[in-house]
Amino acid sequence: MRKAERFYILFGKHGQVGRRLLERVQSEIGAQVLAFDREEYDLAGSSSELRSRLNQIDGQIEKFRNTHEIVALFTAAYTHVDGCELRPEFCRHVNVTNTIEVLNHADRNWGAKIVFFSSDYVFDGRSGPYLETDVQRPLSVYGRAKKEVEDWIETHCADRLILRTTGVFDYDRSSKNFVMQVLERLERGQAVHVVRDQYATPVWAKELSDATIDLVRAGAVGVYNVAGGGPVINRVELARAVAQAFGYPTQNIVGISTASLRQPAARPKQGGLLSHKTKQLIGWSPRSAAEALRILARK
């Protein structure tokens, strides 16, 4: 029998998705929340230290297991794609070894539903936007790490929810997401050079977080895409939508090719995700990036 109330354990509470998830679960009647960030646990540290920290919170969770559904929301990751390419061993330690350490503990010790955030970087970007069932062919160290954790979860965790997403954005001065980088340069009157040959379906962090909890509440199991509404757009189009929403001229936005950047990590060019499965289960209707940006600009 599914329990009516939930106990959420959130890893990555200060990230743009984690912050929105925390807002959402704190508003849920009857829910309990235990939220952590890198100051309280360290994926970059040793696995033994991480295990010790996880063992310390077992008691806090155990007393709720008979009355609440335990849900582990794992948003934490080393997301610097080029950094992962240049430091593959560090990427593996954080994004695979210690990530699995946390997920395994949550599954075995807490009996938790595992909610893991993945990416369209598990695909090669030749034929997007992608469905959940499309063949994964990651191009980068970062993408391969995401795929490896997905595969581990599928094999080891019965109650699992793998959420693939893409181009997550929000208005958050502490974030380095694409929208905030564009805004910073527009505010300074500087040229904004963005690639014109990378396509995605960007999603507002608030809507991603709302969909996440709605999927948990609906009992979803397996892989679900959670991407923005509207058409697939390239980064020039997204940058122009930022400028228009916040009242800046668009002439400073300059399109360039991915090849001209000479980035260490290959990017999926024709990316993006199709969220039909999510929409069908929870009746989700996400806004386009342009619509979400106009809402953010008004706040």
Describe this structure in words.
The chain is α/β, with parallel strands linked by helices. The chain has a domain of 203 residues: Rossmann fold (3-Layer(aba) Sandwich), CATH 3.40.50.720. The protein is 42% helix and 17% strand. It is built from 12 helices and 12 strands. The strands form 4 sheets. It has a 6-stranded parallel sheet, with helices on both faces. The protein has a two-stranded parallel ribbon with strand order 6-9. Strands 7-12 form a two-stranded parallel sheet. Helix 1 crosses helix 8 and helix 5 runs parallel beside helix 6. The radius of gyration is 19 Å and the shape is globular. The mean pLDDT is 94.
Q: What is the fourth-level CATH superfamily of the domain at 5-168 and 204-227 and 272-286?
A: NAD(P)-binding Rossmann-like Domain
The percent range for helix content is 40-55%
Alpha carbon gap, first and last residue: 42 Å
Tell me the total number of β-strands.
12
Low-confidence stretches: none
Profile the largest sheet. Answer: 6 strands, parallel
Oligomer: single chain
Q: Which value, in Å, is the CA radius of gyration?
A: 19 Å
CATH class of the domain at 5-168 and 204-227 and 272-286: Alpha Beta
The number of distinct helices, counting runs of at least 4 residues, comes to 12
- The helix-and-strand class reads alpha/beta
Write down the overall mean pLDDT: 94
Proportion of residues in β-strands: 15-25%
Helix and strand run? EHEHHEHHEHEEHEEEHEEHEHHH
* Sheet with most strands: strand arrangement: 2-1-3-4-5-10
Note the overall shape: globular
Which fold name corresponds to the CATH topology of the domain at 5-168 and 204-227 and 272-286?
Rossmann fold
Q: Under the CATH scheme, which architecture of the domain at 5-168 and 204-227 and 272-286 would be assigned?
A: 3-Layer(aba) Sandwich
